[in-house]
């Protein structure tokens, strides 16, 4: 069985092997390494945002703990108005699918295709700024990573 060697090939065959090798390297770079680098960059951005959120939460935790439950000023606005306004301010207006009364003074809010991170931030602000607490929640994956459908019961 004859052995194949680059030196035994014709000049045309050598060029074809060289072009094939270059194409294989380019395919590896553009099909594997570039998308991988893009994913790593996005993950780093998410980590940076989450670290900033954590730093903020840690900075307000002592203030919230000192205030204790029921220490926040009462608002004359209805729970529905506060929830709707704050959801829109938090960028969740499009995800707000509806709301229904729930018990004495409670409100069940439905979200569709909402950013989980934005929703958690919104709930934290509702608690901190308005004294509204979450009595219960059902959260399901809505397909894409970080996007959820939720039913949340809020109470003053």
How would you sum up this structure, described in words?
The protein is elongated. The chain is 53% helix and 22% strand. The protein has a 4-stranded antiparallel β-sheet. The protein has 3 helices and 4 strands; from the N terminus they run H-H-E-E-H-E-E. The chain has helices at 11-67, 79-89, 116-130; strands spanning 96-102, 106-115, 133-141, 147-155.
Brief account:
53% of the residues lie in helices and 22% in strands.
Write the layout of secondary structure elements.
Elements: H1 11-67, H2 79-89, E1 96-102, E2 106-115, H3 116-130, E3 133-141, E4 147-155
Antiparallel strand pairs: 1-2, 2-4, 3-4
Helix pairs in contact: 2-3
List keywords for this structure.
156 residues, alpha+beta, 4-stranded antiparallel sheet, elongated
């Amino acid at each position: 069985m004859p052995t194949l060697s680059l030196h035994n090939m014709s000049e045309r065959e050598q060029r074809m092997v060289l072009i094939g090798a270059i194409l294989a390297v380019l395919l590896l770079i553009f099909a594997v390494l570039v998308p991988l680098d893009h994913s790593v960059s996005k993950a780093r951005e998410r980590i940076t945002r989450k670290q900033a959120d954590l730093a903020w939460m840690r900075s307000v935790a002592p203030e919230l703990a000192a205030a204790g439950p029921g220490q926040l000023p009462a608002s004359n606005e209805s729970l529905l108005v506060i929830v709707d306004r704050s959801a829109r301010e938090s960028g969740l207006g499009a995800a707000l699918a509806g709301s229904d009364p729930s018990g004495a003074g409670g409100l069940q809010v439905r979200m569709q295709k909402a950013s989980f991170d934005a929703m958690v931030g919104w709930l934290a602000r509702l608690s901190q700024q308005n004294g509204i607490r979450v009595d219960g929640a059902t959260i399901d994956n809505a397909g894409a990573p970080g996007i959820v459908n939720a039913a949340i019961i809020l109470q003053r």
